[in-house]
Amino acid sequence: MTEMVRKITLSRAVRTMQDLFPLEYNFYPRSWILPEEFPLFVDEVRMMKDSDPSWKPTFIVKPDGGCQGDGIYLIKDPSDIRLTGSIQSRPAVVQEYICKPLLVDKLKFDIRLYVLLKSLEPLEIYIAKDGLSRFCTEPYQEPTLKNLHQVFMHLTNYSLNIHSGNFIHSDNVNTGSKRTFSSILCRLSSRGADVKKLWSDIISLVIKTIIALTPELKVYYQSDIPAGKPGPTCFQV
């Protein structure tokens, strides 16, 4: 199951599906795998800038097997990538950064959902009705050369923001730097958002992502649990 959370495995799988079903997989940002696609990254960014001089992109670089925000950084130009040694020994995915995220209380946040993959054949997926929202601890501003390195503004990882002086521990689900996802849905509903449609879209995104990864997962599963051998009796969370 660790293959599911590796950035390169996920990126390859979803990009393959984007080629086959572009409209169904349009939720995934443009991405390139480093170091092997670095020349392609440079060329494509140059072409896109030439065709649209007003395009001022920001990119986010994420180590393949990283977690807790370790090694993630933002860049404005391909030349800013740290190619010295680390990228060779530690492959990464670079993606177009979403510069205008939805904000709550002027803060960027993410959503952590809990999905149980019970079976690959048949494909059986369960999703918890509530999740977690993790907040940045500095008010969000669009990326500039001056604020690119402000992790408390751009990265939502708890393991990073817990070290911020602005981190808020709270017993109230509606405040603080960690909140329930249901409290976010309530806020969005009060803004006029169609929460039922949002949940439907989220479930669709979860299913499509797992479908993209299923071929890879089946290979790993069958190598660990050959046909006829009893399956696992526990789940990884």
Kindly describe this structure.
With 237 residues, the chain is an alpha+beta fold. Helices cover 34% and strands 17% of the residues. It folds into two domains: 1-99, ATP-grasp fold, A domain (Dna Ligase, domain 1, 2-Layer Sandwich); 102-236, no CATH class. α1 packs across α7 (195-224). The model has no long low-confidence stretch (mean pLDDT 88). Keywords: ATP-binding, Ligase, Nucleotide-binding. It comes from Atlantisia rogersi (Inaccessible Island rail).
Keywords:
tubulin binding, single chain, ATP-binding, ligase, 4-stranded antiparallel beta sheet, 237 residues, 10 strands, tubulin-glutamic acid ligase activity, alpha+beta, Dna Ligase, domain 1
Query: What is the general shape?
Result: globular
Give the helix proportion (percent range): 25-40%
Low-confidence parts: none
Order of helices and strands: HEHEEHEEEEEEHHEHH
Number of domains: 2
Return the structural class.
alpha+beta
Give the number of helices. Answer: 7
Q: Using only CA atoms, what is the Rg?
A: 19 Å
Give the overall pLDDT as a whole number. 88
Largest sheet: 4 strands, antiparallel
The count of strands amounts to 10
How much strand? 15-25%
What's the end-to-end separation, in Å?
A: 10 Å
Strands in their spatial order, largest beta sheet: 1-4-2-3
Give the gist of this structure.
This protein is of the alpha+beta class. It has 7 helices and 10 strands.
Fold blueprint:
Elements: H1 7-20, E1 31-34, H2 38-51, E2 59-63, E3 73-75, H3 86-89, E4 92-96, E5 103-104, E6 107-112, E7 115-119, E8 124-127, E9 132-135, H4 151-154, H5 158-161, E10 178-180, H6 181-190, H7 195-224
Antiparallel strand pairs: 1-4, 2-3, 2-4, 5-6, 6-9, 7-8, 9-10
